[in-house]
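seq as requested:
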Amino acid sequence: MTAAELGPEDVVLEIGAGIGNLTERLAKKAKKVIAVELDPVLVRVLHDRFDEVENIEIVPGDALKIEFPEFDKVVSNLPYSISSEITFKLLRYKFKLGILMYQYEFAARMVSSPNCKDYSRLTVDTCYFADASILMKVPKSAFQPVPEVDSAVVKLIPRPSPFEVKDQAFFMDFVAAVFSQRRKKLKNAILNMNHVLKISNIKEIIARLPEDMMSKRAENLTPEELAKVANQIIDLKKLPV
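struct tokens:
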């Protein structure tokens, strides 16, 4: 919690508040805590504990479906089953800082580098939206009952993309498509996934793309290089082929 650098002006979002142990600690530091919890039984526990605490707002519901109130920071032990979906929902909101606990393997993919086994669609998508770093690995023995996996605390700082993307929706689809064929060269990955990308005259467009890029796999290209290829496809789609 120290890494969140909470101050008396911060409004903190907590997803998956559970019985409220972290909620209580956050409320002692922050101006306000918005505690989101899906389980009705746990929501009742939260109300029993905190209904008299003025700076805690309890929000019952599915974090993937509800709209979050405005917040400055997010500090959460996220439900691992929704790690990807909830992270990218969060990144659609404006906030300063996130301190989030994930399954270790998921966190490793968020912060990986090209040419590494953990480098993935998740790495590229995270890089587009935010700076991510692992603050600490948390062994499964730290929890009771002991889970099957280790965890990691990740620091997430939203910021503008460090590289140009001309069409965000296409870029996201493109990254998903080429990483679904990660053992294929980029040329073949695009051809194989064109039923998703829906690029007219795909063979002619690929012929105009740089061969040094097309002969590599997605896992060998930086996020910026993948964005350049996506941008070139967008430009070529506008030209007569």
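Residues 168-237 form a domain with the Helicase, Ruva Protein; domain 3 fold (CATH 1.10.8).
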